[in-house]
Amino acid sequence: MTATPSETGYAVVAVDGSEEGDAAVAFAADEALRRGLSLRLAHVMPSGIPVGPLETIAADPALGAYASETLAGAARLVADAAPGLEVTTHALAGGRVTQIVELARHASVVVVGRRAARALDRAWSGGTLDGVVSRAGCPVFVVPEPPDGESRRPVVVAGFKSTAHSAELFEAAFQAADELGVDLDVVHAWKLNGFYDDIIIRRVSEAATNRDQKAVIWETIAPWLEAYPEVRVKVHVVHDHPVRALIEAARGADRLVLVKPARGSAVHHLGRTARGVLRFATCPIEVVPARGRQELEMPPVVIEQEGRLVT
Asked: I need a labelling partner for 61 at 20 to 30 A (CA). Which of 98, 215, 261, 280 fits?
């Protein structure tokens, strides 16, 4: 069975005129076509420069002219890549994160590009990416600079952490794999930090743990296997750091799908795994928001209380 996309409305893509930004625009055009959406091209100008006469700089017509030309170039790119797609352009001023998230308030998807940042640029670029992904209420794609010489693989990769919010993860991953006509790889990686992992690995069988986790995943995805019988699925469980395992598993993939947790507020603070993947994965990353507040699946295990081990 092939599901019909349920998304309606519009997609937003951030435009900056760079080659990496153009790659994001092309990706957004394809995604908008696939989902049956219109496309809004957004370029955010600075509202002021913290040197010199601010009023004069902010009012400089060159800023508006550059924004208009940048948006026009992106619109031409979309017209060539996706003729007939409904496109509007939006020249905005202010903070990048705030303006993009506000424009995407009712969007079905947001797309942002990721430049190959130098060390001194990572704080700036990482802050923009993290901010948009954290605050947007819809799925966000982060599209990196296409790596030279990396062969493409027809596969969608889903990064599975736990059964919490797995429905949102697998809804997005199975639908994408089905509509793109590619396989689906489900990847789960587990490894504690430092000596804690050394302690655990001496007490459990890695092979048995991997086998048990695979069984949980296969049971979890059973409804989607029935709904999408044409999607071929593989499940991989590895004893490795999640960031490293996901980046390696997703090399050359069509996309890597992650779910961000619900925290009961408008801002979803990304975990270390998500931040690492957003910065270093070489394929497009789709971050899907969870629905509702995330609850613990079981009470936390207490092993120490008031300085004494609890037995």
From this structure: 98
